[in-house]
Amino acid sequence: MREKKKIFVAVPLMDELENLGSFVECLTKQHYKHFEVFACVNQPEKWWADDRKIDLCRRNLKTIEQLKKITDFPVEMIDKSSPGRGWDDKNHGVGWARKTVMDKISLVADENDIIVSLDGDTVFGPDYFVSLVESFSKYPEIKAISIPYFHQLTGNREADRAILRYEIYMRYYSINMLRIGNPYAFTALGSAIAVRVSAYRAVGGMTPHKSGEDFYFLQKLRKFGPLLIDHPQRVYPAARFSDRVFFGTGPAMIKGALGDWTSYPVYDFRFFDEVAETFATFPALFDKDFETPMSQFFREKFKTVSPWNSLRQNFKTTGNFVRACIHKIDGLRILQYIKWRHAQQEQADEENLFSWFRHFYPDGLESSGITPESFTFEKAEIETLEEMRNLLVTKEKSWQRQIKILR
After folding, report:
1. In the predicted model, is pLDDT for residue 312 greater than 60?
2. Does residue 365 surpass a pLDDT of 80?
3. Residues 392-404, mean pLDDT to the nearest whole number
4. Which of 34, 96, 156, 300 lies deepest, with the highest CB count within 10 Å?
5. Phi, psi angles (nearest 5°) of residue 10
6. What is the pLDDT of residue 4?
7. Taking the model in full, what pTM does it have?
């Protein structure tokens, strides 16, 4: 085991030639020099026979050529793009690419090293790697870090409107999860995760998904151990329309630009309170069944009268039973419940948002100069949406500093 932690950068690359220069520049400027980059340039093999994708394929080849020219730091390049090397029809996408680089890193790294998950369209400051090493050293109990993020505006008003609306959705959801003290109160971005190599191995690595692999990975790590959410450095992912994944920032922006935000609404804050009330009943549920705010959802989701009987049979103490409940009703189940409840109401997003502001942050809303009576997401100026996003960033950061570690 080496004495000094080494950082291994895991980055999937697909059609990132335009952003590669900025990404490499950020790496070159890092003050912490003990790092190595593992990059997977990837695409489905069948795209070479698709006239609509051929230009992308050629850009991927140029990306490979540029990676081979880098001399400022070590680069291990995994070619899943050149003719004959692309993904098959079954296993492909960013989830497989991210898993491929992380698994390769796991084979060569020491257990005290750090895997940093990034994307090729993301920029970050010169002290980013230093801050990660310091956080893992300061908090030896944590298994991973969910890094703060901030999408910089592009100057393209359509793109800026879409990314601000999407961030408002994400920040609002995060703040409510933090507010109720939920153990899954993290935001998962593939470009904003750092994990100990020992933890990566302990959880069996990343489970590949075509999209959403970052969420499932962080959820798995959170179930394994503590997750740090208060970190001094940010990453800055690009705000751009993209259909390279099935859901996430790019697809959300595309749908939103077409006027469809139904997949990313502003939920009634009381639904989160119902989650908190249910979690508070877990100790008492060890003794007997009774109705909780989420009971009807559980019956429909798990197709059983009681989802707790099997847990009682397998976990014989209250503490172990409660932990099992928390693992069962995880971040995915909570999101499913919130969506299920949202389908039962007809309140507009704006009504839910300002009801929440009036209840929890009336002073913040007043100081922002935003007028609820005349505000709509559809007609709001970019500057107003930016003010709203930045206000939520401040509130989220305050909660993250207060909670610091999800346990």
Report:
1. yes
2. no
3. 97
4. 96
5. -105, 115
6. 86
7. 0.93
Question: Alpha-carbon torsion 151, 177, 326, 309, what sign?
Answer: negative
Question: Helix or strand or coil: residue 154?
Answer: coil
Mean pLDDT of 166-171: 96
Query: What is the SS3 assignment for 157?
Result: helix
| pLDDT exceeds cutoff 60 at 246 | no
Count CA atoms closer than 13 A to 85's CA, side-chain side: 15
Edge-first strand listing for the sheet containing 75-80: 75-80, 35-42, 7-13, 114-117, 193-196, 144-146, 227-228, 405-406
Determine the pLDDT at residue 34: 97
Strands 227-228 and 122-124, by their bridges, are: unpaired
- Written as six digits, the tokens of 54 are 């051929």
Domain ranges of the chain: 7-149+187-257, 269-406
In this structure, CATH architecture of domain 7-149+187-257: Alpha-Beta Complex (3.90)
Helix (H) or strand (E) holding 14: none
Query: Angle 298-304-310 (CA atoms, 0-180°, nearest 5)?
Result: 95
Alpha carbon distance 242, 148 (integer Å): 22
Buried b (16+ CB within 10 A) or exposed e, 125-135: beebbbbbbeb
**Among all chains, which residue has been given the structure tokens 């009801």?**
355
Cα–Cα distance measured from residue 30 to residue 68, given in angstroms and rounded to the nearest whole number: 20
C-alpha 247, offset from chain centre: 12
Q: What are phi and psi of 404, to 5 degrees?
A: 70, -60
Max alpha carbon distance in the chain (Å)? 65
**Residue 1, helix vs strand vs coil:** coil
Token reading at 265: 């609404």
Q: Read off the pLDDT of each residue in 225-229 and give the average, rounded to a whole number.
A: 98
